[in-house]
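Side project, low priority. Logging it here so it doesn't get lost.
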Amino acid sequence: MNVGLPEIASGLGFSDAGLTWVIHAYALTFGGLLLLGGKIADRYGHKRILLIGLPVFGLASLIGGFAQEPGHLVAARAVQGVGAATLAPAALALLTSTFPSGKARVKAFGVWSAMNAAGGALGVLIGGVLTEYAGWEWVMLVNVPMAAVALALAWRGVAADPPAQRRGRPDVLGAVLATAGMTLLVFGVVRTDQHAWGSSVTLTTLAIAVVLLAAFIYVERTTARDPLIRLGLFSNRSVAGANSYNLLLGGAMASAFYFVSLYLQRVLGEGPAMSGIQFLPFALGVIVGSVIAIKLGYRVPARTLLVGGGLLTAAGFAWFGMMSADGSFLADVLGPSIVTSIGFGLCLAPVVSTATVGVAPHETGTASGMLSSTRQIGASLGLAALGTAATHRTGDTASLEALNDGYALGMTIGAVILLAAVVVAFTVLPRTGPASQTEDEKGELVPERE
């Protein structure tokens, strides 16, 4: 969608401010509903929710592809976010429950992370090619056959869940508070492109979000109903550490796609299709890193992989920070893309696996939704904060040198964020993953029977 934004603006008549809602509408519903989506998947069955979310996403994509005015596309993107908020936790929970431990789990999460990240990078390539040669509509319409194929594969290939255990009446108030708080938090952050961080609009929005989330925590601690999130999950060092790491990793990586895409198009003068092609080394690097993570995951603790992968990714960001206004793809993009992507691939599977190991089966969807939520919040916060810093460095001058300096600063700050993630992994995560433990019905860690 990012690559196609200029064509979308001219095709549907978006204003500059209105165009941002093509991205924001998806981010708001996706980020705001992830926790609720995870809980629903736990309560009603992961496969069932997966089979509901796929048609929702596909239908929204179809409607968006035939949009005739800005409001139609923004509404379709919002519904896409609803579908994604059910898909992401349900899919990850199915993976967690299917591969609870051992070598099969390492391999499964490695394959999952490679497909996940490579799909994101390849999306830039596909988006550029479709925008340039088929029209922006196909950036939406291409999702329809993909969702249909995924639905058929899931219907036939994914094993049915065991009957979901209903654990009392659902916590409706907690769900409303969490969804409203998360949505307002994302809304306040993504709107910093129009309202500065210190503006009354931003501060008020974020303050209300904090109040709602604080009220949500209070409700979760005191409710007699089935809580949206059992707060005891955060006493698990693996869950707490992996989510903190994921928050920082998401913030850095979202800015990487953003700044590198703008550098290729606005500084080096590449077209959408060529810019997409030049992201291919990144996609391949993520796959390589994920394969290495699989090989090392059998013998090396997850914490070690997260520390090493974070350091390698930070080195790639620092290399990006030396990009030049009169540079080239070969000199300024290819090398750091390979380093960054391999490091990123090393991080993906361990952080996802760590965040769900030791979690009771009836809470895997919740834990998965929480992990996806931290990635989304991190991406929104990171992109807004780093984008603001880049804009301040660029100033009012639109010269290539000024733009380059802004993008380079954003990538350098991203390197610092990744170093903070490494510190989290080193200090919070246990030395060895709790692969031999699971949680009982009361949430207590107990040895897993071989």
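Brief comment: The first strand starts at residue 437 and ends at 439.
Revisit when time allows.
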